[in-house]
Amino acid sequence: MNNKTTGSFISARRKELSLNQKQLAEKLGVTDKAVSKWETGRSAPDIALLEPLARELGVSVVEILQGEKIEEENFPAVSDEVVVTTMKKDKKKLKRAVIIAVSIMLSILVFLQINFYCYHYFTTIPENDITAIEKQATEYIKDFSNIYEYEFHNGKIVKSVEKGKYHFYLIEGTNEINEKRIYLCIFRNDDVFKKRIEVIGGSLGISYSPNEIHHHCSGEGSDYGCVNFNVFYGYDMQESEYSFYYRGVKYTVPIEDGIFLHPFVDIDSNWTNANLIYND
């Protein structure tokens, strides 16, 4: 059915019967604005109105749909009732198909959303659960230590510092022959569950070097550019303070209990290595 062709046909038949739009509308129980929209092709009569409209105009439903008079010898051998019933069935089928399609799409979206939340929940740990942090850090260190054919056991947090959404931990443990090892692990707040964190990096070296200033430089991508981590740390320190330069600024920081951990987090498009000065 072409709305404009059908509308012109309705308008012509109404005028042939000397009816105005309001009179035809009253016979059909609709407004004259509805009739006006039909006749201008801006909308089409509802399926339920096709038979009453055909009766009032003295034509068949097929002729309304066709938008023209049909000669008797060319008239299809079906009744208006059959045509309308068929159209109603087709409309119901289409409606049912749309409902099924929407239901499937919603189910997929819900499934993806559930998986998204499950992934974020089960790959993160509570930010205040020390045991869980030590366990995840130990597993992370093990994965990289195995690359160098070393083992790591009994990881414990000896120092921690929080910088915004990032958490820095010095993890002490032992290797396969019970030698002491110190690693730096970096965690980040989860983007979905704000009170949960996940490990994203750290130092991969395996040497144990007490009484030295160590520097770790790494980073991660973000929507704002590169997030750079420059972390200074030391353990079993004998001095009472340490000094270093970072981006041309000298820092002197006291040492507590022989351990220090001093991270910088910068959003920058360039990786920056700090200039170290030992025992300044």
Characterize the structure shown.
The protein is 37% helix and 28% strand. It has a five-stranded antiparallel sheet with strand order 1-5-4-3-2, covered by helices on one side. Strands 6-7-10 form a three-stranded antiparallel sheet, with no helix packed on it. Helix 1 crosses helix 3 (32-40) and helix 2 crosses helix 3 (32-40). Residues 276-280 have low confidence and may be disordered. It folds into two domains: 3-77, Orthogonal Bundle (434 Repressor (Amino-terminal Domain)); 126-268, no CATH class. It is α+β, with helices and mostly antiparallel strands. The longest helix has 43 residues, at 80-122. It has seven helices and ten strands.
Strand order of the largest sheet: 1-5-4-3-2
Name the overall outline: rod-shaped
Low-confidence stretches: 276-280
Give helix % range.
Answer: 25-40%
Biggest β-sheet strands, sense, barrel: 5 strands, antiparallel
Number of strand elements: 10
SSE order in H/E notation? Answer: HHHHHHEHEEEEEEEEE
List keywords for this structure.
alpha+beta, 434 Repressor (Amino-terminal Domain), 2 domains, 37% helix
Put the structure in a nutshell.
With 280 residues, this protein is an alpha+beta fold.
Chart the SSEs and their pairings:
Elements: H1 3-16, H2 21-28, H3 32-40, H4 50-57, H5 61-66, H6 80-122, E1 125-126, H7 130-145, E2 153-163, E3 166-174, E4 180-189, E5 196-202, E6 214-222, E7 225-234, E8 241-246, E9 249-254, E10 260-268
Antiparallel strand pairs: 1-5, 2-3, 3-4, 4-5, 6-7, 7-10, 8-9
